[in-house]
Amino acid sequence: MPVNLTAPDPASLLPVAGVRLGIASAGIKKPGRRDITLIELAAGSQVAGVFTQNRFCAAPVTLCKQHLATGNIRALVINTGNANAGTGEEGLKRARQTCDAVAQLMGCATENVLPFSTGVILEPLPVDKILPALPTAQADLAPNHWSDAAHAIMTTDIVAKGASRQISIGGKAVTVTGIAKGSGMIHPNMATMLGFVATDAAMAASLMQQLVKEVADVSFNCVTVDGDTSTNDSFILIASGQAGNTEIAAASGTDYAMLKAALSEVAIELAQAMARDGEGATKFMTIAVEEGRDRAECKQIAYAIARSPLVKTAFFASDPNLGRILAAIGYAGVADLDVNALKVWLGDVLVAENGGRAASYTEAQGAAVMREAEITVRVALNRGTVNATVWTCDFSYDYVKINAEYRT
Question: Residue 307's domain spans which residues?
């Protein structure tokens, strides 16, 4: 079961002015499953995104990148149950067909539509099921359907993921609401996940790409479940401009910092929810690496620990076999790392220093921490002032079962 995670109360997901969402059932993988989400954006909305770096990226990812370059996005369409990845030119054709159909319904150009897919790879997108469901999704459009959309984009997720914040910028109330899906095949860059975060703040188009990258780097690019980077990962940031604030035109001002902080809070909550809902997860782990020379080496070491199957299975078993953590630090690839200078904590317990077991450490201390549902591993490198944090989960028997039966 997910680790200390429940679906958000639908009332807690605040409507964002200029954004409406509609849900429908196409029965892509299961009859009656609500698996189509349509998102309508007000004219003038600014949209930016970051996507998987997997070279075998899905057809919708390719089209999203092309369509974002037009600078005028009016709708997003999301299907679950089929990834439309590993489908070649036919996959691109079918993704375009979906965009064409949405454009006709919404009264916009095909290039104004962003498509997203998630599900089984190497299977043709069933447009014969998707297209007839789109009018139903359009008829369902409403500003308060964020919770419905959070459920509709799920695949192997157990819990829907959504979050909201409200702040004041220039005396105007500004809302941020986001949803995401992902519980397996999760690893940057991006870290199979889809994330959609919208705000009604007015934001200059020239700042959107910088902002979405900065938010992704402190959230979705800091989570791993199994070390597999998906073919379909996408994180989209929307600014509808309906809040009435003076347009944020510079990244150096207080308004930008406030909005970035609120967006980051929502994205971090969604990213952590993915690890808490990792396939078969029983433990949620925070890997904090500090006192590094730069953020890159801190994340490199954090990810080596977080994606190690040996570390993750030890946490599942509540077994303080902590030499596995030291081994992961050692093979992380930081060539000049002085292992005699670093320290490692499990929770508040000092485990290792001076190149080996801490003199004060006992097996009973480690076992007590390992039985907890939420555990922090902290590594101090003692070679600088930079920190980085990564979130992950354990590997249980259920992870193998879920993925062995994924297509059944």
Answer: 284-404
Region of 336 on the Ramachandran plot (φ > 0 left; ψ -120 to 50 alpha; else beta): alpha
Q: Could you list the pLDDT tens digit for every one of the 408 residues in the chain?
A: 688 989 899 999 999 999 999 999 999 988 999 999 999 999 999 999 998 877 778 899 999 999 999 889 999 999 999 999 999 999 999 999 999 999 999 999 999 999 999 988 889 999 999 999 999 999 999 999 999 999 999 987 889 999 999 999 999 999 999 999 976 444 444 434 799 999 999 999 999 999 999 999 999 888 876 555 556 678 999 999 999 999 999 999 999 999 999 999 999 999 999 889 877 789 999 999 999 999 999 999 999 999 899 999 999 999 999 999 999 999 999 999 999 999 999 999 999 999 999 999 999 999 999 999 999 999 999 999 999 999 998 888 877 776 676 555
Give CA–CA dist 275/312, Å, rounded: 12
Query: Is the peptide bond prior to 285 cis by the omega test (within 30 degrees of 0)?
Result: no
Q: Do 231 and 88 fall into the same domain?
A: yes
* C-beta of residue 122 within 8 angstroms of C-beta of residue 65: no
CATH of the domain at 371: 3.10.20.340
Does a structural domain hold residue 5? no
On the 0-12 / 13-18 / 19+ scale of CB atoms within 10 A, 171 is: exposed
- What predicted TM-score, i.e. pTM, was given to this entire model? 0.91
Catalytic positions are 192
Burial of 142 (0-12, 13-18, 19+ CB in 10 A): middle
Do 27 and 131 fall into the same domain? yes
Enclosing H/E stretch for 366: helix 363-370
Of 159, 28, 154, 152, the residue nearest 81 (C-alpha): 28
